[in-house]
Amino acid sequence: MFCDYAKIIIIAGKGGDGFVSFRRDALTAKGGPDGGDGGRGGNVLFQIDHNLNTLGQFLRQKKYQAQGGFPGGKNNKKGADGENLIIKIPPGTILSEVDNRGKHIALQDFQKPSTPYLAAKGGVGGFGNTRFKSSVHQRPQIRLLGLPGQKKKIILELKTIADIGLVGLPNSGKSTFLSKVTKARPKIADYPFTTLIPHLGVYAYGDKTITLADIPGLIKGAHQGKGLGFQFLKHIERTRMILHLIDIQSIDPVSDYQSIKQELKKFSPILAKKPEVTCFTKIDTTGWNENNPDLKKYIQDFQQKTKIKKNIFAISSITTLGVKKLMEYLLSQVQRLPAAKLSTIRAISQTNTDVPPVTKPTPNSFRVNHPFAIKYALQADQQSEASMQYFWNKIKKLGLTQQLIDMSIQPKNTIYFGSKRFKWPE
User: Fold this and answer.
1) Above pLDDT 90, what percent of the chain?
2) According to a count of CB atoms within 10 Å of the terminal CB, is the N or C end of the chain lower?
């Protein structure tokens, strides 16, 4: 199934937990600490796969999670790192993240083959008790838990990469034209809206090639969502130029032309400014050839009414009359035009300086917003007295203990550090 838009959730792997262990062997009854660190969690990456042309696989699966890191072990054995998760996507995909305010921020535009893009980092593994050995603490019972991996809401949007975009009203002959000049095989029938999804085709002439994109026919009001073409207009935003096809049998070709131009302008002013070639189709139905005086007068009248100064072509896709001349012209023009620009990419700022370090949402609860304090909380092993003592010492060094006391915190009041909850000690 063709799909060009998807919302998914990606979760990088959690870091492995540190290990508490002491050396035991025949010669050492009470050895020192030898607990190893946990492994790093797997990353989530995205990579182009040229065998894909749709985001349909994301309709079936909405959540993607990388493998977590493994815990440390005895004899200072470090836990294994979690495997990275590489998600394959078609070329032309724009990857955006939904930030904390619900805005979509473009992170990467996948147009050309490249190394996999790191979208979510795996969590760091926790320290084993060997890390806490000192001259004062020779048998530490402290360990740190692995940090969770990054979790992100991702928007994937596919925009077809083509040199030329075919536009026109339904049944204007776009699909027939594409099938004649390329090996693409879109559905063709003698009624409107036979094209339901975009189709790509490649035209080769000697050692040169151009890619053409056929989208469903546009109707008046398409920019407001009417008809089938609206949702696919974005597929011609990347094209270098537009080929506007008009059925020569139309009762009012000028109105047809102006209608499409208005829809393009209302959808995107950038689209309306792209270089355009206008071409009449189905001239075999009139009995005219390329040099027929009636055809030349027809085109001149059209040019006067639409104020088009450039050459206008007339073809028959069925008989191929005029097709070669048109394609040679398109090929010459495309070579002069620059490639489509990448989408604007900018980073998400995760820091909010307006939030105070400690807030009091209810009379008996507090929320700590300090980033380092939240990190320490996520690493704290609440089942270990030694680890909790280490945690509270870290909080004190950050100056948060005094701040909580100044805010009248009481024993057993709840304190939230990110997603973790603690009780204030007595």
Assistant:
1) 50
2) C
